[in-house]
């Protein structure tokens, strides 16, 4: 069932993820599962689904119908390369999480645990959709990424990551402005903004969007969680982080010097949050 919408012809080359079972650590502060309870699902939403490569949320699907008890009919989205580099990347089978996507075959999913988060999308031409990192979201970047991975994909199936908070929406002229996040020791998945090479932010140009691995849902702290946790840190959803997190990303202890206090306050202002808001889920 597809609610009468036209669905792109299935070329027989795309299948959804195989069911997998993974253990996920409990975060220190926020319950991310409440953002994907049955009540959160509705027709015409688009959701990110954990893939079958390393269980990161890089598959996308549009909700066609929701049943109770939980079951959803979906239409899978597949990446559409818009230049030679993107087309080669797609043909290599390497994962993609942002750019242009089209509708493919439909499917039924009964496991609510397969879903990670709702995604923001923009309708494009010929029944395609544009999906880009949004201001305020937190994302994983491939460490040491290179577009030439597509020429030797079998040697690029395991990844190390950097984590960033997005400071500007995408434009074709300038790409996306981001700031690095660094993990704090002593917490399951708490990160704070940090400088990189003396800079508090850096640009991902529009021709390097494949450097974005996947969005990581996050909770922005309000300063009331614990005495040693100020406002403006980010607790990332552990379900969207690698199980060997401390082996594949940089981390510091809670006393290490990162971005000055006024810069953290700058993030708060930039995202439009205030100290008395409860809207701190990214």
UniProtKB/TrEMBL annotation:
Which residue ranges are recorded for the region named Disordered? 1-20
Going by the entry's taxonomy, the superkingdom of the source organism is recorded as Eukaryota
Compositional bias (Acidic residues) spans? 1-13
One Pfam short name = DUF3444
Domain DUF3444, chain residue ranges per copy: 20-225
Mind telling me which PANTHER family this protein's record contains? Answer: DNAJ HEAT SHOCK AMINO-TERMINAL DOMAIN PROTEIN-RELATED (PTHR45089), DNAJ HEAT SHOCK N-TERMINAL DOMAIN-CONTAINING PROTEIN (PTHR45089:SF24)
The protein in question is named DUF3444 domain-containing protein
Give the organism the record lists: Papaver nudicaule
């Amino acid at each position: 069932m597809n609610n009468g919408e036209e669905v792109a012809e299935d070329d027989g080359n795309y299948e959804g993820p195989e069911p997998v079972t993974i253990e996920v650590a409990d975060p220190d502060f926020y319950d991310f599962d409440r953002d994907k309870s049955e009540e959160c699902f509705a027709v015409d939403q688009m959701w990110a689904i954990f893939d079958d490569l390393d269980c990161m949320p890089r598959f996308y699907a549009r909700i066609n119908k929701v049943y109770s008890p939980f079951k959803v009919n979906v239409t899978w989205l597949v990446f559409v390369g818009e230049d030679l580099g993107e087309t080669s990347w797609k043909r290599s089978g390497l994962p993609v999480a942002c750019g242009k996507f089209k509708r493919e075959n439909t499917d039924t999913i009964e496991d609510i645990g397969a879903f990670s988060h709702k995604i923001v999308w923009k309708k494009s031409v010929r029944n395609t959709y544009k999906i880009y990192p949004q201001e305020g979201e937190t994302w994983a970047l491939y460490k040491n990424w290179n577009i030439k991975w597509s020429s030797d994909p079998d040697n690029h199936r395991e990844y190390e990551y950097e984590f960033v908070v997005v400071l500007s929406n995408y434009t074709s002229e300038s790409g996306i402005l981001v700031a690095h996040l660094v993990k704090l020791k002593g917490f399951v998945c708490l990160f704070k903004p940090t400088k990189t090479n003396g800079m508090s932010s850096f640009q991902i140009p529009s021709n390097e969007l494949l450097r974005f691995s996947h969005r990581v849902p996050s909770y922005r702290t309000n300063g009331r969680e614990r005495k040693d946790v100020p406002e403006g840190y980010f607790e990332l959803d552990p379900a969207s982080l690698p199980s060997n997190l401390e082996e594949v990303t940089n981390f510091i202890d809670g006393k290490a010097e990162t971005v000055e206090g006024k810069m953290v306050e700058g993030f708060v202002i930039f995202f439009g949050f205030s100290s008395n808001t409860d809207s701190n889920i990214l």
